Amino acid sequence: MRAIFFLPDLFLNRWHERAHSLAYRRKLLKVPQVARALALGDPPHITGAAHGGTLNIMRHALLARDAGFDAWVATPSGRDTYGVLAIPGTRYMRYADRKPDDLIMIPDNVSFLTDDVQGPVIVYEQAPHFVRTDFDYRRSNVEIWTDSPFMLDICQRTFPGKQVDIVPNVVDDRMFPFVPQERRTKGLLFAFPRKGPEFIDEAERIYRQRGGSYFHFERLDGLGIQELAIRFREPQVFLASAESEGCALPPQEAMASGIVVVGRSAKGANFSMKHRETAMIAETPEAAVDALFELEDMALCKKISETGYAFIRHCFWFAEPAELWRKMRARYSS
User: Fold this and answer.
1) Are 251 and 279 in contact (CB under 8 A)?
2) pLDDT, tens only, 204-237
3) DSSP assignment, residue 68?
4) Distance between CA atoms of 115 and 211, rounded to whole angstroms?
5) Within this chain, do residues 246 and 162 fall inside the same structural domain, yes or no?
6) C-alpha distances out from residue 208 to 51, 163, 194, 200, 289, Å
C-alpha cells in the first residue's frame, strides 16, 4: 500500500517568513483566512521554513517505508525544495498524483486539505496554534494524531467526540548520538534565537550581571539537520526559550545527544522536561540563570543528561516509532 505524507514546498522568502512570525506573535494563526493566506501563494501551499514538525513528518515517512509501505513525501511541485534542510533519504512525488486508496497524512497547518481526501487520512496535530476545525473531523476515514498530553487536551476540546491518538515523535539517535558531558566543551550553551530571542538575551544579560563566567552563549540559526546534529556533539547545555512549541524536537534531540536542557516548558509542550530529573525547567530568564549557576557542577550535569537520555529513548527510531508503523502496516494489510 502507498502512504503519502503531504508537505508544502519550501520557499525561502524573508517577507513570507516575517509575515508568519508576525501572525504567530499576534496569535492570528488560528484565524482560517490568515492561515490560508500564509499557506497559499504562488506556487500554492508554500512554507518559509523547515520546522521541527516538518522533519518529524519526513522521519515518519521513512519509518513507514521501513515497515513495508510504499512511502513518499508529496509536495505540490513534486521536487526536493528542502535540500540540506531535509531528512536524508526522503523521496518526493507530486501531491496531485495521489490515488483514492492511498493513505494520506496531512499536517496541521494545512488541515483544510483533509476534506479533499477520499481514502484514509491522518491529520497530524503537532502545534497548538494550528489546531482548528477547518475540516470535517467527524468523517470515519479521518484519524487525528498528536504528540503530547498537552496537545491531546487541546485536540479533545477542539474535536469533541473524536478519538485522538498520541503517537511518539521520531528522535533519530543515529544522527544525534549520545556524547557524555565530560567529552563536551565545558561551559558551551546553545540557543535558537528564532524561538524567544528576548528570553535568551535577558538570561545572558542577567547571568553576566550576576558575575557568571562559566557558560558561553552561542546562538544557532539556519543550520541544516545534518550540520545541527554534528554541532549538538559540543555543548553542555541547550536553552529552551520558546514560549510555545509544536512537537518540540530540539529539546528531545538535545536529550538524546546528552545535552542538559534548561528553560521553558512551553506551556507543557516540552513534555519530556521533568524538573531536576530530565531537565531544569525555568519559565523566566531569572530562573534559567539560577539553573545555570547550579549546572556549573559537573556531577549535576552528568546526572540530568543521563536521566534525560534514558527518558527519551522510547522515541528513538527503532523503539516506539518503528512499532507504530509496523502496526499500521499490519492494519492496512488485513
Assistant:
1) yes
2) 999 999 999 999 999 999 888 999 999 999 999 9
3) T
4) 57
5) no
6) 31, 49, 22, 12, 9
Q: d(Cα 120, Cα 147) in Å, to the nearest integer?
A: 20
Length of the chain: 334
- Tell me which H or E stretch contains 46: strand 46-47
Cα–Cα distance between 120 and 72 in angstroms, integer?
A: 15
CA distances from 275 to 294, 304, 319 (A): 13, 9, 24
The per-residue DSSP string of 9-34 comes to EE---HHHHHHHHHHHHTT-TTSHHH
For the residues of 103-145, what is the DSSP string, one character each?
A: EEEEEGGGGGGGGG--S-EEEEE--GGG----S-TTSTTEEEE
Same domain membership, residue 145 and residue 200: no
- Range(s) of the domain holding residue 265: 181-315
Strands 2-6 and 46-47: unpaired
- Residues 13-35 pLDDT 10s: 556 666 766 776 677 766 777 76
Count of domains observed in the chain: 2
Cell numbers at residue 117, please? 481526501
Helices within the chain (DSSP H only):
14-25, 32-39, 52-66, 149-158, 197-209, 225-231, 249-257, 285-294, 298-312, 320-333
Q: Are residues 306 and 328 in the same domain?
A: no
Give residue 269's region: left, alpha or beta (phi > 0; psi -120 to 50): alpha
